[in-house]
Amino acid sequence: MSTLLRVDASIRLDGSVSRALADSAEAAWKAEHPDGVVVRRDLGQHPLPATVWPTLAAAQVGQEPVADSDRMPLAEAQAIAADLAAEARNADAILLAVPLYNYGIAQNVKTWIDLLLMDRDLAFGSRPLAGRPAIFAIARGGGYAPGTPKHGWDHATPYLERVFADLFGMNIRTAAAELTLAPVTPGMEELIDASKVSESEAHVEAENHGTVVGRELIGHAA
């Protein structure tokens, strides 16, 4: 039985493009794995406590957190980090739905990644995730393609690729929708049609990625 770890980061439920893209990828994956298990981690609705990482980082170097507000019981922080690492280790594939916020990833995603990296084995030891697939479902409110004024301003996707591909060794597939703010942002009206095209194409990519990853896992299990 295969396991898909789905991680959502959008603070929105209704109207979230990244969640919708992840839905397309998940549905395609489940079509290949009707008995598969989907483990859900919703960082947008249930962010991790901001005090976890300072507590663990301080303990790692033998110091106390710099402020009382950064403190939490060390055992509690260690248990949270261990649960997150176990979720990743036990997943045959990871589906990560991330919106671009302020040209990068939001604090809720950064905290999750920082805690995964607390398990040094994931990135610097045996690297148990190496070779496993990961699907990125990414929503960008503006346009960041080559030739656009803000080309190069997407600091989320390269960072995610650096962590999950270069450090964890996972095989990355990306479905990204751009101009997602056009329908609701004054001054972007002329880009609405382009945003719809981008979103439609991204859904096709997400579905294809879910199908391909699902079939790869079936072949691996065989």
β content, as a range? 5-15%
**If strands are numbered along the chain, what order do they take across the biggest sheet?**
2-1-3-4-5
**H/E series:** EHEHHEHHEHEH
Rg from alpha-carbon coordinates: 18 Å
Distance between the termini: 11 Å
Structural class: alpha/beta
**Biggest sheet, open or closed, and with what strands and sense?**
5 strands, parallel
Give the rounded overall mean pLDDT: 93
Low-confidence stretches: none
Counted by DSSP, the helix tally is 7
Tell me briefly what this model is.
The protein is α/β, with parallel strands linked by helices and 222 residues long. 44% of the residues lie in helices and 15% in strands. The protein contains seven helices and five strands; from the N terminus they run βαβααβααβαβα.
Task: Describe the 3D structure.
Helices cover 44% and strands 15% of the residues. The chain has helices at residues 17-32, 52-60, 74-89, 107-116, 120-124, 157-167, 192-221, and strands at residues 3-8, 37-42, 93-99, 133-139, 171-177. It has a five-stranded parallel β-sheet, with helices on both faces. Helix 1 links the parallel strand 1 (3-8) and strand 2. Helix 2 (52-60) crosses helix 3 (74-89).
